Amino acid sequence: MATKIETVFSTGAMLYTVIHNPNDGTIWNTANSAWETFNASVWAQYAISMTEQATTGYYEANYPTAISGVLTTEVCYQQSGSSPAISDAPATGIGQSQGSNVAAIANSTTAASTLAISVGTMPTGAIVSGTLTSTAFTTSLADTTDNVYQGRLIIFTSGALVRQVGNITAYSGSTFTIMVGGAFTSAPSAGDTFIIV
């Protein structure tokens, strides 16, 4: 399934998006499927047409599959003539917009890439029936390596313990049980969710 560029806007508009590479300032040219230095005379080649779903105000376009490993920004424009033109204004008042790999932290795409890598190492799970105490609980984690999460933190994201944090002191790979140093305010319940950082 193709990755989508999505936005919400007034119904009946002609929208398109232009993809920028903030690392080097280039723009994606859809005609030759390559990054290039901005050239106003080929503006229409930068446009990726967005299609409205019925009259819902929901617009989407396929993110170019040739773009990979690059954090990008997408800007939506409202087409005023028969084809995209440099004079088209950005679509303002967008309800929300979502593209692919849209990220920068303090204008640093390197920081965003580093964060994405670290977030990829943060497993999520849920409490399941079994051991349910304030210091030990059975989880939905599937890792069979003992103590693989030792020294990391568990943060509850739902249930009575939401936002509480515990230091993982042990993990049983045979029972999928986490043990923490210091008790939570109560035992978690089956179905409570968490993330390990």
Topology:
Elements: E1 4-8, E2 15-21, E3 26-29, E4 34-36, H1 43-46, E5 48-52, E6 58-62, E7 73-78, E8 89-90, E9 96-98, H2 109-119, E10 124-132, E11 136-139, E12 153-156, E13 165-172, E14 177-181, E15 193-196
Give a short summary of the structure.
The chain has helices at residues 43-46, 109-119, and strands spanning 4-8, 15-21, 26-29, 34-36, 48-52, 58-62, 73-78, 89-90, 96-98, 124-132, 136-139, 153-156, 165-172, 177-181, 193-196. With 197 residues, it is mainly beta. The longest helix is centred in the middle third of the chain and has 11 residues, at 109-119.
Descriptive keywords:
elongated, 8% helix, 2 helices, six-stranded antiparallel β-barrel, 2 domains, nine-stranded antiparallel beta sheet, 197 residues, mainly beta
Mean pLDDT: 90
Helix/strand class: mainly beta
Helix content: under 10%
Rg: 23 Å
Order of helices and strands: EEEEHEEEEEHEEEEEE
Could you please describe the fold and organization of this structure?
The protein has helices at about 45, 110-120; strands at about 5-10, 15-20, 25-30, 35, 50, 60, 75-80, 90, 95-100, 125-130, 135-140, 155, 165-170, 175-180, 195. The protein folds into 2 domains: about 5-115, no CATH class; about 125-195. It is elongated. The longest helix is centred in the middle third of the chain and has 11 residues, at about 110-120. The protein is built from 2 helices and 15 strands. The model has no long low-confidence stretch (mean pLDDT about 90). By secondary structure, it is mainly β. Strands 1, 2, 3, 4, 5, 6, 7, 8 and 9 form a 9-stranded antiparallel β-sheet that branches. The protein has a 6-stranded antiparallel beta barrel with strand order 10-11-14-13-12-15.
